[in-house]
Amino acid sequence: MTLVALTGGAFHMGSVDERAYPADGEGPIHTVELSPFHLDSHAVTTAWFGEFVEATGHVTEAEAYGWSFVFAGLLPDDFADTRGVTGSEWWRQVEGADWRHPHGPHSDLEDRQDHPVVHVSWNDAQAFCAWSGTRLPTEAEWEFAARGGLRGLAFPWGDELEPDGRHMMNVFQGTFPSANSCADGFAGTAPVDTFEPNGYGLYNMTGNVWEWCADWFDPTTYLHSDRRNPHGPEQGTSRVMRGGSYLCHQSYCRRYRVSARSANTPDSSTGNLGFRVATNA
Predict the structure, then answer these.
(1) For residue 56, what is the DSSP state?
(2) What digits encode the pLDDT tens for the residues 148-189?
(3) Is residue 153 classed exposed, middle or buried when 0-12, 13-18 and 19+ CB atoms within 10 A define those classes?
(4) First vs last Cα of the chain: how many Å apart?
(5) Whole-number Cα distances in Å, 144 to 39, 40, 110, 113, 267
(6) pLDDT tens-digit readout, 236-269
C-alpha cells in the first residue's frame, strides 16, 4: 500500500460539460468540503489481491457465479460464441473468467502481477478493505484526488486528451469496438504505475480500469447532497464507479474525465473494473 496524504478542503465538484451524459448527473458544479484522508497512489494489483485471497480464502462473486464479462476484442479469434450484452455486444459472458483468468479460462496472471485486479465486485472490494484495514473512497474524495489540485479541468493533467501528442492514460485507440490501434501501448489493462501521476502523485485516476467508490449512485445526488464530507444516498441499487477504463473512447464513452460518473450493481464484475483503497487521516 502506497498511501498519499491528502489535505482535503473545499473544491468544486461536478461538471456542466455539454458533451456529458445527462443521465449520469455530473452537474451542477457545487462546492464540497472534505476532511483530510489518505488514498493509495495505485489501484489494487493482482498481486496484493492474491495475498488477500491466500490469507482469507475469499471466493469472488465472479468465481461463485462461474462467469464474468470480457471484452470481445481480448478473446482469441477461435473463441466459441458466447452470449453478448444487448446493445453492447462487445461484452461477452465468458465462463471461467475471474480475477485469476481476466480474459477467460485460457488466460492467467503471468506478467500481470502489477496490473490492477479486475473481475471484482463492490462486495469483493469491501471484503478486501475489511482485511487490509482500509475502505473505499467516497465519490467526492475520489474526484478531489483525481483532479490533482487542478480546478475545473477535464483530466488530471488539463483539458487536452493528448497534450502535444502524448498519451496520458490507457484508453481505446482507433475505431471502437472493432479496431484498437493500441497507440498508447496497451490493448487491455496496463501496470498500475503506467503514465505520469497527477499533481498529488496518484497514478491512473482516469483510464485503465473503472474504480469502485463507496457511495450508492443517484443521478440527482448533486442537487441535494451534503456539502461537507458527502457520502451519497442512504440506499440505492447501484454503486458509483469512477475514472473510465481501457475501453473508453470519445466516439461512445467520454467517461474518462475526472467529473464523469457511472454505476453498476454491487455484485457485478467485468474485465475493466477494479478499485483503490483509502483510509481516514
Answers:
(1) H
(2) 999 999 999 999 999 999 999 999 999 999 999 999 999 999
(3) middle
(4) 15
(5) 11, 13, 34, 28, 26
(6) 999 999 999 999 998 888 999 999 999 999 999 9
**Domain 3-280 sits in which CATH superfamily?**
paralog of FGE (formylglycine-generating enzyme) (3.90.1580.10)
Give me 19's grid cell. 458533451
Bridge partner residues of 11 (DSSP): 32
C-beta atoms surrounding 192 within 10 Å: 25
The 10 Å Cβ neighbour count of residue 65 is: 15
In the structure grid, which three cell numbers stand for residue 112, read together?
500481470
pTM: 0.97
User: Where in the chain are the domains?
Assistant: 3-280
- Which residue type sits at 13? M
Three-state DSSP class for 179? strand
